[in-house]
TrEMBL record:
It catalyses: D-glucose 6-phosphate + NADP(+) = 6-phospho-D-glucono-1,5-lactone + NADPH + H(+). Gene3D superfamilies: Dihydrodipicolinate Reductase, domain 2 (3.30.360.10), NAD(P)-binding Rossmann-like Domain (3.40.50.720). GO terms for molecular function: glucose-6-phosphate dehydrogenase activity; NADP binding. It comes from Epilithonimonas hispanica. GO terms for cellular component: cytosol. InterPro entries: G6P_DH (IPR001282), G6P_DH_AS (IPR019796), G6P_DH_C (IPR022675), G6P_DH_NAD-bd (IPR022674), NAD(P)-bd_dom_sf (IPR036291). This is Glucose-6-phosphate 1-dehydrogenase. Its EC number is 1.1.1.49. The keyword Oxidoreductase applies. Pathway: Carbohydrate degradation; pentose phosphate pathway; D-ribulose 5-phosphate from D-glucose 6-phosphate (oxidative stage): step 1/3. Substrate binds at H182, K186, E220, D239, K344, K349.
Length: 493
């Protein structure tokens, strides 16, 4: 293992993300032999804990959330020695000075300067303070060795994202900043590029001559859980569309990069976002649907309506569901609608991409089948992970009849235990590979794409909020949005 010794500093180590995702991911990387030989997990939190209490708390979380369930006590004992709880108050300069002493102490013991990876899993309002204090106290002044991972939200709209990026640029170089979008770490999202650019047979068809429409769905059964306060100030457009769905769109629509290399790939993604047609304010109703869930039932269990959720303003005008239509105005995609939808408390958890091809142009079989089903390529991201190509085939038998059939590549069959998104992304950050992270211009451009929608919805009188019962497949208006162009939602959430 030739990985550089690394001091990993987690701001917000007692928070929800650390508990569910970060510690389990680091532990799984450790079990699979991906962590550097020398590393420490400096775990920062505001409340007092003994090392033992904190390590036991992490073990409980690992038992609940780790991908790898079978591990020896010996392995855990090795890992737990790496975890150091540090009581930390972000508002106090003294805390940063102590942290610096700790980091310098680690370097002194190693006899070399370790890489430093700072994970900012803190409320957005603390990002400025933390990054400035890191810089001013000299904790992160080695451009080649020190990196910072930042969690979304990256701002609230375009202006705030520009301001945030400008602030960060005063303290860090862009190459040191890793803006995480965990959807980019999902196996089948990464696979889009392999599939498109690692085969000869699909890319020639990947354009408006052969593709009729594209659908991207991210449906969840969860509600706002205990994040009502955050979510009510955000809504599905900011929480999901601006980042996760836009990033998927970029992967589907981008031009071939000349190399699998971060600048190239990120340039091609920005190109897509720049080509997305901005929707005029007066057309927002025509292109978008926003909705809130009302009470309902999922798996036989009653669920509250959004307005009754804890932390949510009972008169809230925040959307929990969005469906919309985009166009990418470039040579490849001119005229092809990209439909997107995402919602909480839907009937089924499902993230998928459906590429619908155009109808067969010839009349050969018009007397033999009522309706030819156009080819459809489905990329299931989760919970199923597969690529599914539907095509027409001859029905076995004596006469010449046709029926649709499917060809499926299933990830779970060939790799039942694929790493979690956070494992991939944390490993990339440890290795200094930012390909799957978002550059400042990508984030700003993605905000720009939705800017008019934000404005229109905030004005309130422009676009009506509709509702859908918890456990349903969303509002009727979302079906209408597609029907106007003779389309229907093709995945089945
Ligand atoms: C997060 C959103 O970024 O992604 C959450 O803030 C959402 O609201 C989550 O639930 C979905 O992630 P996943 O990996 O469960 O699909």
């Amino acid at each position: 293992n030739d990985k550089k010794p690394t001091s990993i500093v987690i701001f917000g180590a007692t928070g929800d993300l650390a508990k569910r995702k970060l510690f389990p991911a680091f532990f799984n990387l450790f079990l699979d032999g991906w962590m550097p030989e020398d590393f420490e997990l400096l775990s920062l939190g505001r409340t007092e804990h003994t090392q033992e209490e904190f390590r036991n708390y992490i073990l409980e979380n690992i038992n609940d959330f780790s991908r790898i369930k079978n591990f020896s006590e010996e392995k855990w004992n090795q890992f737990k020695e790496k975890i150091k709880f540090v009581r930390f108050d972000i508002t106090q300069e003294e805390s940063f000075i102590q942290l610096k002493n700790q980091l310098d102490g680690i370097d002194a013991k190693l006899g070399a300067r370790a890489n430093r990876l700072f994970y900012l899993s803190v409320a957005p309002s603390f990002i400025e303070k933390v990054s400035k204090s890191l810089k001013e106290n000299g904790l992160a002044n080695n451009m080649n060795q020190d990196r910072m991972i930042i969690e979304k939200p990256f701002g609230y709209d375009k202006d705030s994202a520009v301001a945030l990026n400008a602030m960060l640029a005063q303290t860090f170089k862009e190459e040191q900043i890793y803006r995480i979008d965990h959807y980019l770490g999902k196996e089948n999202v990464q696979n889009i590029l392999a599939f498109r650019f690692g085969n000869t047979i699909f890319e020639p068809l990947w354009n408006n001559k052969y593709i009729d429409s594209v659908q991207i769905t991210v449906a969840e059964t969860v509600g706002v859980e205990d994040r009502g306060g955050y979510y009510d100030g955000s809504g599905a457009l900011r929480d999901m569309i601006q980042n996760h769905l836009m990033q998927i769109l970029c992967m589907v629509a981008m031009e071939p990069p000349t190399a699998f290399e971060s600048t190239e790939i990120r340039n091609r993604k920005v190109d897509v976002l720049k080509s997305v047609r901005r929707i005029n304010l007066e057309d927002i109703n025509h292109y978008t649907v926003r909705a809130q869930y009302t009470e309902g039932e999922i798996d036989g269990k009653k669920k509250l309506g959004y307005l009754a959720e804890p932390g949510v303003n009972p008169n809230s005008n925040t959307e929990t569901y969005v469906a919309m239509k985009f166009y990418v105005d470039n040579e490849r995609w001119k005229g092809v609608p990209f439909y997107m939808r995402t919602g909480k408390r839907m009937s089924k958890k499902e993230s998928s991409i459906v590429i619908s091809f155009k109808e067969v142009p010839c009349t050969t079989f018009q007397d033999r089948i009522k309706k030819m089903q156009p080819n459809k390529l489905t990329i299931n991201i989760q919970p199923e992970m597969d690529i599914n190509l539907s095509f027409m085939t001859k029905k076995p038998g004596l006469d010449m009849k046709l029926k649709p059939a499917e060809m499926v590549f299933d990830y779970f069959e060939c790799a039942p235990d694929t790493p979690e998104a956070y494992e991939t992304l944390l490993l990339d950050a440890l290795d200094g590979d930012s390909t799957l992270f978002m550059r400042s211009d990508q984030v700003e451009e993605a905000w720009d794409v939705i800017a008019n929608i934000q404005t229109a919805w905030e004005n309130g009188n422009v676009s009506k909020m509709v509702t859908y019962p918890a456990g349903s497949s969303g509002p009727e208006a979302a079906d209408e949005l597609l029907k106007r162009q003779g389309h229907t939602w093709l995945s089945n959430s």
